[in-house]
Amino acid sequence: MLLTPMELYKVLNTLGINVKVKSEAEILSSLTPLLSQHGFFLVIGDDKDILFNEREDGEVIVETFTRGKADAKSKTDEILNILNIENGFLDSILNDAIKQSKKGIFPFEDPLLTEKGAILTRALIDGFGGEKGRGLYVHSVLVSAIKTVCPEQDIRLHKTDWVDGIGMRVIDKKCISAWFNSRNLGVKMNSDGVFMTRSLAVDIPYVPSFPPKIKGPKDEWLELISGIQFGEIDPESALRALLFGAHIRNIKFDNLVDSIFELCSRFDENPSQVFDIIHKHIYQRKNGGSRLLEIALHSFVQICFEEGYEIPTIGKTSLMAPIKPMRSPDKKAGDVGDIQFRHESFIDEKGSRYIVYAIDAKYGKSISDYEIDRLLTHLSDEDTPQPHLTNFDFVGLDKPCINAKKTHLFNQPNFPDIRAISLREFVREIDPNDLLSIKWFKRYVSMLSTQNLGYGQVTEITTDWLISLLTLLEGYSGYQI
Fold first, then answer.
1. What is the pTM of this model?
2. Hey, what domains does the chain have and what are their CATH numbers?
3. DSSP code string of 188-202
4. With contact defined as beta carbons under 8 Å apart, do 313 and 418 qualify?
């Protein structure tokens, strides 16, 4: 439960308590009913945050997190120096876990991890897939590593906005996310790290009442942070279990990919079925459908380039932009659309990232005035101009509906040619005879298996997407959409 000072005063009034009562002891004694109901609540103030937390033994702990710019740079730098990739800290933890496991000593059975810690770390390892849970897993590695190398640090205070806080964003970007991105563990992050997820970056301590909605095992993540912070779970043991868990997942992941590639051969004699299987894999997903549509489109045009096929709107080109990470800051970078074809004058710096043709994947959404306005904003922004954009396609799994009043702009002079077409229409106008289908399907699988073949890398945890594809292939008997 989260309370602002104004909401707190309202609660006090409701309980018949004078609003001038401000001492923590008086507030605590007055809010026993709330503690009995919720177990904890957090008061966010201008100069401090106050956490009221009732422990299992009935003891109530009152903690104050003082706000203010303290000189945390030295502490942050100290941690950065220890966790620096070149020092091999995380490598040594993982390698030790692997060596011990070969002797029958498994990280999840470490007494210092405790049974509770084993449950929480397993939940975080098993909880990431597709678009959810990855940030919580990597963040758990981050706080475990920080507490291991700096036991006195409060790992709930992730910014220097608190007197005792540290700059976790920079530690993660330079040490943790960077380490995962440079290792083959099946975990890849945006180059800016986990704090690109805004929910993790809000100015609220990581306490049980942390309010933002986060996809994945949020409760287990907060429990692990509390357990490590209060000495109930050994941080190095937690770190060892988290890294070893990713290692085991990656072995299973490789076996999964091999199984899917073995089944690809069944389409050799009937390549026309490839489109149907990809369509079926993406169709009616509640999570991940939009990203899978992007991957399908990007993998298809990769094969077009390699085989020398023309894109009807622009002809042949080798200036294809790599696939973008999810949640890329398009407006800030000057990007347009999900899949981009660069102009020959493209330079990789803001204001010169010129695009000649772009595709925007529209999964289950109509084209609204908002979409048109967003495109206009990209085109007219003086800081990130796009003077060479001649064509823009909205491509849906099925043909997107146009629900916009500004469709008259589609045919305006000095404005890109805009189309709304289905994935089938897009593929068929380039490859009507399915000559590219087998190679397309194998490239689709390669991208889902997070390989980087020169076109960028999918950074999501794709295990659940691959499992669903394997299930689909195993049960496939042929059908037409």
1. 0.63
2. 2-66 (no CATH), 73-252 (no CATH), 268-474 (3.40.1350)
3. ---TT-GGGSHHHHS
4. no
